Amino acid sequence: MRVSKRDGHSPLLIRMWWAKWLYLALLVPVAMLLIFEWLPAFSALYNSLYIWNGGKVHFYVGLEHYERMLSDRTFRVAITNLVGFVFFRVIMQTVLPFFAAEMIINLRSARWSYWWKIIFVFPMVVPTILNYLIWRFIYNPQVGLLNEALTLIGLEQYTHAWLGDPLTVMWALAFVRFPWLPTLQFLIILGGLQTIPQEVHESAAIDGAGFWRRLFYIDIPMTKRQITLAMILTMLFMTQRFDLFLVMTDGGPGYSSMVPALQLYQSAFHFLEFGYASAIGVVLFVAMLALTIINLRVSAGAAND
Amino acid sequence: MINRKRLRIANHDLPFQLALVAFGIVTFFPLALVVITSFKSNTQFYHNFWLPELPLHLGNYSSAFRIIWRYIVNSVLYSGSTICLIAIIASVAGYVFARFRFPFKTALFLGFITLIMVPGVLTLAPRFVLVRDLGLVNTPGALISVWVSGGLVLSTWLMRSYFESLPRELFDAAYVDGAAEWQVFIYVSVPLARPMIATVAMTTLISTWNDLIWPLVTITDKDKMPLAMGLMQFSSDFETDWGTLFAGYVISSIPLLCVFAVAMRQFISGLTSGSIKA
Hints:
- Chain A is mainly α.
- Chain A is built from 15 helices and 2 strands.
- Chain A starts with 11 loop residues before the first helix and ends with a helix.
- The mean pLDDT of chain A is about 90.
- Chain B has a single domain (about 60-275), classed as MetI-like fold (Orthogonal Bundle).
- In chain B, about 80% of the residues lie in helices and about 0% in strands.
- Chain B has helices spanning about 1-35, 40-45, 60-100, 105-115, 120-135, 140-165, 170-175, 180-190, 195-210, 215-220, 225-235, 240-260, 265-275.
- Chain B is globular and about 75 Å long.
- Classes of the chains: A mainly alpha, B mainly alpha.
- Chains A and B meet through helix 1, helix 2, helix 4, helix 5 and helix 6 of A and helix 1, helix 3, helix 4, helix 5 and helix 6 of B.
């Protein structure tokens, strides 16, 4: 701390004058964050109380947008879809990477466990949108991989327009990227499992604990924090990311695969209802904040046990 | 002796290896099918869905490349300039926050990290209006300005923690030798922070390379689209020309594949540290 020798007793303005070069160094990032981050964030809060087409049409309506959300059928479907989707994805995106990580730490060959980690991170080089486009091909009703595979094993009667049927569309979307590991969650859980000391596993083996006992009495309890983190991340990702829905179905057929973030996007950019879009954004923001706080509380409680 | 030990390990590992192999096959199967199909003509594809077939249609690759190269170049330019700007700005800001005490430091720093809690979906619509009013729509500036400011939040924090973790003696030695503050920064701090700068660069690369929504609302010209958005365009332009379509998919995975091959460790650390801002 170089300036510390001189500060402490001098008046504030003098100390600020001494720090002028430091403020200058911070000028660019602070200005950028004010303009491109803080300003839009407050603009969203403020404009959620207005009817606004993004341009000149701009008048105060109070909480009308929030009331409208309560009676908006599309929004209700979107929320229901999102809750089910997030619930399913959180389970899938935690169990799959845990399973793979568990297999990997069970290997005694260090070289192989390193290579398996690399192999399962590898699909990250495929641009995210290609995941969706490839899965759109898998669900393609005419020449999709899934229907072809069903035909191949003689289950022709089950071929289906997976994304075109309101009954199957959300399930089809929930299985997108299955069984690819969510890289982040995988690395987090694997990292957690790898910090369990070798001795713990060895003494468990001496005590005669088999694979399953070890799983439920050592590995899961000892990686509780990483599992919680992986779950929070999945929840936050899934709540705000809608590129999957946009690319695969655009909310259709009808609005049977709508989610709130996609509705926000459509309200703003298709219908020019920037006020309503902002209000949806505020609701999502509050929901995500609440989720994070609850989760941190729960995991802090779990850590204290 | 050594062989027997190896055999015992292999024996113990066998069931887990088998499970992993099965898992790997299911994971890579769709990718393999995409690669196989990328060498087929449409007739071959409809005739024989699963297996590779001669002759190989390398023409698919040249016709896909003629479209895709433009998007890849754009993405390299946009992501590249974003990475450079973030690396410079975040190391300066991180250094200032880590090494000095000055009035309002805490308040300013809070102004950075509180933004971790603000999701992109909240700011999407008003940010578009802002960028439009600044006249940036359909220019690279729309992407770079927003990507840089978004990335700064986390990067500054990472750089600050890294500079704080460096031992003070390193800096003191330089001051004793009569170095000015900017010399200490450029000749001592930046070289020492190279691993963290690499992590920041990788985080930025992965997030900007894959961003679809922001280009979608700000870029309209085909020849200005970054790769993620270009691929969406490409997939609707070549909807039923499966060979060319999949050749384009393969080509567009090559840039990150190269980065992954060259800098695997930084790639992985970039992935993990990027998670903090969800």
